[in-house]
TrEMBL record, chains A, B:
Signal peptide residues on this chain, from the entry's feature table: 1-26
Originating organism: Marinobacter salinisoli
PANTHER family named among the record's database cross-references: EXTRACYTOPLASMIC SOLUTE RECEPTOR PROTEIN, PTHR33376
Gene3D superfamilies associated with the record: Bacterial extracellular solute-binding protein, family 7, Periplasmic binding protein-like II
Source organism, top-level taxon: Bacteria
Protein name stated in the entry: TRAP transporter substrate-binding protein
The entry's keywords: Signal
Length: 358, 358
């Protein structure tokens, strides 16, 4: 009798261990700490991160949690690359062109002047070798990088006076950061770097003549449309994609199902941000025009576009000099753009042209 | 001593039951049967379904399986709506405008002539009330409907002769199905319905003068570019979205985490199809022109576009007559399009225009 009980007990202990092990495996929670460039409650950009975390948590039944720290918490909005690289955070949400100091080739994965629009660029990422090139750039830093949302085609900026030719740019005081600023400087623009909080006053008082921000959705709250009438179409960021960065060690610790959940949540959140930006820009542009009837849309004249294009080519050549990987990325984007743009032109562009005149 | 063993055994049995129950809940597998309109190994459309099923299975660690039946299996490519509605299948992948006989208002959720392009339409679905209206249409049939992938802007078709004005359409024999066919018929086009397998020969022998299919990606294998030189931009399906349909009972049986996994897998697969179509169309259009240098792109002249627009308005009015929900959907799409198109025009369209001339 005692032997039977012992056998029974042993069997139960064994089953129990198997049962509990399966259950505890299924219930093991992984928490990833994410630092974002954006402040708390940041529209569109911050919402995209929350949306991603929410999908991941629901899909994993609570097993994958993303704890988000906004810029007010970590105090390093442009330090995301370093903080994820050194493991201070597991993940980041930022724009890779902010890090052209530490990792110059990262900038190509946000957007390039005269480059691809959002759907073309996603096609390059997922079918034209873009993801592989991006990984080649980030791998030496122990990082994985994924598309993190598109702002759509960014506007060329708010101008207080019309730009009728390339001569009007000479000496123009403008806030336009990064690579686009360097290109503008080639055309004689006095590029200034003024903190976001002071831009409205600077434009109002004439400290600057023009300002480039994002597009209607995010420009609306900046209020530039209240003090500058001319809203120019862009050339500099035709499809600006922000990025998720992940520390490779943190990624490797996740089981395969949670890796896939995280990968798909990021991919969906990125597309969703493009669509949310499309929506929000439509709403905001309509409100701007309703509230300020003097606000009007302009496109840069052909000679300005030509000069900007030439200056872009010059700067790109300088940036890529002596860097075979940079040259490879530029060549890959250029080849891809040439092909896909012909399709865009006979489909969406032709269609939009044919109905625009009505 | 025996009492201790008994207590121990009772405790073990209890823990075992809890452990096993947690483990078996975590491991419970749900299999959904999906019927697709498309044949086996169908490029892009069929790949989208497989991609969705693959993501769902990986994200759920095998707990959610989608068993896909192609048209050769269920023999009812245009019976998906009925088969999912009556529970013969749990899910379907199809285009809702195939069912305008049984559920006329479903057609608005695929595409509408002179309607929105893909990103505009996704914005309408997810931010402009489109999903809610779609659900209103499908709910009485016990179905849920989700976007299932976009072909991008469809081309107007392959023509053997140039169309120089609206008079050239009178008596033209053309394959163009559905609502677009009805509109074309208003302009005097002799709309014919020829099975896909016979279209090439019909066009070659002059049984028809023109054929509308999809776009370069799917037209390529049909070979029309070998026998017709003029490829016209479209007006009839500016952003054709296919659909996932799900039987409400099958959906309700899934636990919340698997519902979210399925929802996100469908959403991502839909966006991914739009991007894959963009890529594949770029590649195919480039090959067509390389292999057949006489192939050339055309846009319909303004008077043709105007006549098509007027005929579309007339038919839409007829379709919506006496149907408040149809009128509501048309009004919602029209309002949304008016707003979002202004954004598209000052962003992507202006940008594409400004760089096209170079």
């Amino acid at each position: 009798m005692p032997t039977m009980i012992n056998r029974l007990t042993r069997g139960l202990v064994l089953s129990l261990m198997l049962g509990l092990s399966a259950a505890s495996h299924a219930k093991e929670t992984h928490t990833l700490r994410l630092a974002q460039t954006w402040g708390p409650n940041s529209p569109i950009l911050g919402e995209t991160v929350e949306h991603m975390a929410d999908m991941a948590e629901k899909m994993s039944d609570g097993r994958l949690r993303i704890r988000i720290d906004a810029a007010n918490k970590h105090k390093a909005p442009f330090g995301i690359f370093d903080m994820v690289r050194n493991g201070q955070y597991d993940m980041g949400h930022t724009a890779s062109y902010y890090y052209k100091g530490s990792i110059p080739n990262a900038m190509f994965f946000t957007t390039v002047p005269f480059g691809m629009i959002a759907p073309e660029q996603y096609a390059w990422f997922y079918h034209g070798g873009g993801m592989e090139l991006m990984q080649q750039v980030y791998e030496p830093f122990g990082l994985l990088s994924f598309p993190g949302g598109n702002t759509g085609n960014q506007m060329g900026g708010w101008f207080r006076e019309e730009i009728n030719g390339v001569e009007d740019l000479d000496g123009l005081k403008m806030r336009t950061p990064g690579f686009a600023g360097e290109v503008m400087a080639e055309l004689g623009v006095a590029v200034t770097n003024i903190p976001p909080g002071e831009l409205y006053t600077a434009l109002e008082r004439g400290t600057i003549d023009a300002v480039e921000w994002v597009g209607p959705a995010l420009d609306f709250n900046m209020g530039f449309h209240q003090i500058a009438n001319y809203y120019y179409s862009g050339w500099q960021e035709p499809g600006a994609e922000v990025q998720f960065l992940i520390n490779q060690n943190a990624w490797d610790k996740l089981p395969a199902d949670l890796q896939e959940i995280l990968r798909v949540a990021m991919r969906t959140a990125a597309y969703d941000m493009y669509i949310q930006s499309t929506h929000a820009s439509g709403v905001a542009w309509s409100r701007m025009k309703d509230d300020y009837p003097d606000v009007t849309h302009r496109t840069f004249p052909a000679d300005v576009i030509e000069a900007l294009r030439a200056a872009t080519e010059k700067r790109l050549k300088e940036v890529a000099e002596g860097d075979p990987l940079a040259q490879q990325i530029i060549a890959s984007q250029r080849r891809y753009l040439e092909q896909v743009r012909q399709w865009t032109n006979i489909s969406d562009k032709s269609y939009l042209d044919s109905v625009a005149g009505e």
